[in-house]
Amino acid sequence: MANYTKTALVKDVAEQLGVPAATTSQVLDAILAQIGEKAEAGENVMLTGFGSFKIKESAARTGRNPQTGEPLEIPASRRLTFKASKPQK
User: Fold this and answer.
1) Which H/E stretch holds residue 45?
2) Rounded to an integer, what distance in angstroms lies between the CA atom of residue 6 and that of residue 46?
3) Helical packing angle, 6-17 and 21-40, nearest 10°
4) What are the backbone angles phi and psi of residue 19, rounded to the nearest 5°?
5) Which residues of the chain have pLDDT under 50?
6) Which of 30, 40, 76, 86 would staple 60 via disulfide (CB 3.0–4.6 Å)?
7) Quick one: fold of 6-84?
8) pLDDT (tens digit, 9 = 90+) per residue, 70-80?
9) What is the pTM of this model?
10) Predicted pLDDT at 70
11) Contact indicator for 79, 56 with CB cutoff of 8 Å
12) DSSP-derived secondary structure for 11-23
């Protein structure tokens, strides 16, 4: 299965809309930046018919080094998650 890259997405959308690829790339970059900024600020970003983005926090925990079995502390972290919408009927 091949990957659908950002470059391919920009090219396809630019062709569909009849606008330059550079403009399409700038718009996509701006959209992705806004999603990241709003999610980082604690807002859930919901795109109807597509899905939602939000920051998920994981607590600190103890893990193990797989090579030595030695315990180690894994720090708390935050990450951006995406949940796809249910398909439309």
Assistant:
1) strand 45-47
2) 21
3) 120
4) -120, 160
5) none
6) 76
7) HU Protein; Chain A (4.10.520)
8) 999 999 999 99
9) 0.74
10) 95
11) yes
12) HHHHHHHT--HHH
